[in-house]
Amino acid sequence: MNRPAAAPLLAASRTAQAARVRVPATSANLGPGFDACGLALGLYDELTVTVTGAGLSIEVTGEDDGVRDETHLVVRALRAGFAAAGITPAGIRLNCVNRIPHGRGLGSSAAAIVGGLLAASALGGGRPDIPEVFTLACRLEGHPDNVAAALYGGFTIAWHDSDGPPRVARTDPPEDLRPVVFVPTRRQSTAQSRVALPAGVPHADAAMSAGRAALLAMAMSGGPRPRSGGAGTAAVASPGTPGPENNDRAAAGPGNGRRRGDGQNGYAGLADDRLAGFSAGRPAGSQTGKQVGNQHVRPGAVSWRDALLAAVDDRLHQPYRLPSMPETSDLLARLRAAGLAAVLSGSGPTVLALAVDQDQAALARTCAGSDFSVFDLPVDRDGARVELVVG
Ligand SMILES: Nc1ncnc2c1ncn2[C@@H]1O[C@H](COP(=O)(O)OP(=O)(O)OP(=O)(O)O)[C@@H](O)[C@H]1O
Ligand SMILES: N[C@@H](CCO)C(=O)O
């Protein structure tokens, strides 16, 4: 991206000296929602970006690829964000606490990009322009699924309207959902994993996957629901708003209780008078969603729990990718045989099991074998957060 010719210099002596960002891990696709669906998970990378007098310094704790120059992904995102804000910092000190494993299918690159852009946007002055961050992040990442979930939290579906900016619909998955991730030691980059995909798929496979993707969206919204519990509606975030315009808080029934994530990860301590906090996924004063219809669960009909197992089956990407990941493929087979909705997480090789309660999560863990590290990760419902540290 070209920097404006007369970009004002952001000096180290500005009142706002640093931005702190926390971004969740994400699992993309969830089976048939290829390049569209994403789920935010409670594992976080944290960045602190400080404007200095000159130069670039990078400190990394945790997952580290050893890059210490302008090619560092967070720095690339920062530069793009500063350019969009029309400013040039005199110098940058970047401190990264990386908890999301790299090249495993848990959205590390999306987290790095969203983190860098949010920090730049906050340091540029004022409230971060979230739709603009989303648009830039999609451009840098190349696809919108991880980025949408990282920015907005919860379960997201992202898309492009022909030439328009990317858009996102988000909802809160059922409270009982218990994601379990199985992370192998070996890496596989998204670029490598996309090479295995065919240019086209048979119409029957596309039709099957479209149906399952629709079922996935319904299941992750907690539907179908009995009339007494009300119906949920997905919220659509439009460009020009800092987050979803509507939220699915209409239903008071099971699975729709709310909690705020603040404080759950030790981050609440940052919220003192010297910090201004923004959360992309949870705009203040959000409106109640409009009901779009109720559905009775009659004998023979499926609940969201039953629907999930069928919903995660797809013929768009997993069948093409799994042959190059035999351990992952075997684990998926074991989990599915045990009745779990298990998928390749993003482009792999991590496996995500969407357990529908604690018992299923415990069952999932018994399937792991010795090739994987297993983590119970709650759904992140808040998305990325940025705090501006004032002098
Ligand atoms: N925090 C970070 N700091 C610097 N570079 C990062 C960071 N996170 C990711 N990267 C870069 O992104 C690469 C991984 O991106 P890739 O898209 O291949 O996998 P992923 O994002 O972990 O998985 P997926 O996109 O399938 O969910 C790393 O090898 C590294 O180059
Ligand atoms: N939708 C992407 C997610 C990984 O970044 C893919 O499957 O390639």
Automatic annotation (TrEMBL):
Its main location: cytoplasm. Residues 222-296 are annotated as: Disordered. Gene3D superfamilies: 3.30.230.10, GHMP kinase, C-terminal domain. ATP binds at P101, H102, G103, R104, G105, L106, G107, S108, S109, A110, A111. The keyword Cytoplasm applies. The gene is thrB. It comes from Candidatus Protofrankia datiscae. GO terms for molecular function: ATP binding; homoserine kinase activity. Belongs to the GHMP kinase family. Homoserine kinase subfamily. Residues 73-154 form the GHMP kinase N-terminal domain. Pathway: Amino-acid biosynthesis; L-threonine biosynthesis; L-threonine from L-aspartate: step 4/5. Its EC number is 2.7.1.39. Residues 285-294 have a biased composition (Polar residues). This is Homoserine kinase.
